[in-house]
Design goal:
2 copies of one chain form a homodimer.
Chain A: H1 15-28, H2 41-48, H3 52-65, E1 68-70, E2 76-78, H4 83-96, H5 101-122, H6 125-140, H7 145-162, H8 166-189, H9 193-209, H10 213-234, H11 246-254
Antiparallel strand pairs in A: 1-2
Helix pairs in contact in A: 1-3, 4-8, 4-11, 5-7, 5-8, 5-9, 5-10, 6-7, 6-9, 7-8, 7-9, 8-10, 9-10
Chain A binds a DNA duplex (30 and 30 nucleotides) through helix 3.
Amino acid sequence: MPISPLFRPIDVAPAYQKVADAIEREIVNGRIKPGDPIGTEHDLVRQFGVNRSTIREGIRVLEEGGLISRDSSRRLHACLPRYSKLTSRLSRALVLHEVTFRELYEASMTLEVASIEGAVEQASEENLAELTDNLARSEAVVGDPAMLAECDAEFHVLVAKASQNRVLQLAREPAAQLFYPTTEMIVTGVAEGGPRLVAAHRHLIDAIRRRDREAGVLWTRRHLQDWRRGFEKIASLDRSVEHMYMEHAQAARRR
Amino acid sequence: MPISPLFRPIDVAPAYQKVADAIEREIVNGRIKPGDPIGTEHDLVRQFGVNRSTIREGIRVLEEGGLISRDSSRRLHACLPRYSKLTSRLSRALVLHEVTFRELYEASMTLEVASIEGAVEQASEENLAELTDNLARSEAVVGDPAMLAECDAEFHVLVAKASQNRVLQLAREPAAQLFYPTTEMIVTGVAEGGPRLVAAHRHLIDAIRRRDREAGVLWTRRHLQDWRRGFEKIASLDRSVEHMYMEHAQAARRR
DNA sequence: GGCTCTAACTTTGTCGGACAAAGGGACAGC
DNA sequence: GCTGTCCCTTTGTCCGACAAAGTTAGAGCC
């Protein structure tokens, strides 16, 4: 016969973790709003009654989670976690789990098609202006694989943004970040690559402007299939995402 | 006229950040493999030539990022970042950005349909066994909204797992984690809710077993539309995800 | 020999204090 | 009004210390 539950399990966690949890709670509960100052380390020492080293460890945890950050003068304040910072963690995890390019490709096919569908339906004039601006810049650097790959990555971020669906924006990020380095390789290796990429973007913008869902989906598929064909000239889709690609993501995260 | 770039920007970062970066690099480069011991704090003090407090701050950063963790005896070792830990951070971000349930619903429609399509194509016997087991447990707790909601969340994780696509598994997690608490509310509020949910699961397993893609997609759509109808009896789809839901995700993360 | 129990030893979590460098603010001087 | 200087605060880092928990090694017992 089980004994009656007289006691609750007691919460035994290191002090720095409790500090981090306490501050996190205040932020997610909304009592501390993004932008609000957290106070100096010394303030926190007084409030929590623990040593400054302990406070600092707690702060590192929150900082890494993107919940708080330090402004130009290194003062602490709460902030809205930036997707790109968090999703780069996920990209890193995908690399370490050695996912294959096939998984990346298939998931992206779904996510990018959903993005364009949302964009066709929801894009504002401002979204279109951003996309058009991106297209112009892409055309200017069509001969420079590195720059073009960067433009391509930005283009798809803008399409997702135009869908006005932030969940979707976030969901596609981890995979997209791993695509980016390969795009450069492909554009370098395939002569037709650059112009075809830019042409696809042009058709996509056109589809969004005309609210033509079919065309949007069609050109997104083609665009991704182009990537796939280019990639398969270099390597097998069943190869796992290489460690070296992480360096790109790592550099991007620091920005 | 711009001056010629004689100097590279110098890398000025706090020591604890450099420590974290150095260890991270070794892990993502594969020189330290998941499971490998990192050494004691004292070892790191010797290797990096900085104070233990500094080392500890660096360790916190990596620990929070899921790259290293402490085993039962609190010794440090590299590890494969667990998706659930990372995605709960994304869920938190979505809450703070006040995304709406409509965004959640529309993104999930895409992601869950993609999951079932993958599952229909790729599911192994083991995946089916897990799903069947989950169904049995769901039927046993159909009267208990909290338990049933938990089973429902697990069911969809298992479907995504059956797709054998880890990118997709990861992409759907943040949205799924925010769904979970609402499922409980809906099952509580709608009399038919529990049985309909279990019935949908049964049809989905059946579709996977028969490799019937159409049926899988159809029942996934219905299942989500059920959720939507139930939700709209309680609140508007355009309401933002409430702060209170975070408490579930927070509790889940600690597990 | 294999087992248990105990006594060092190690490691972590926390503490207190310390100091240099950088930033912010007030204040005088132009 | 702008600039330069001095002072105070804050952060990043260091040092040394100690209790608690875990590890290891060895003594003692079967």
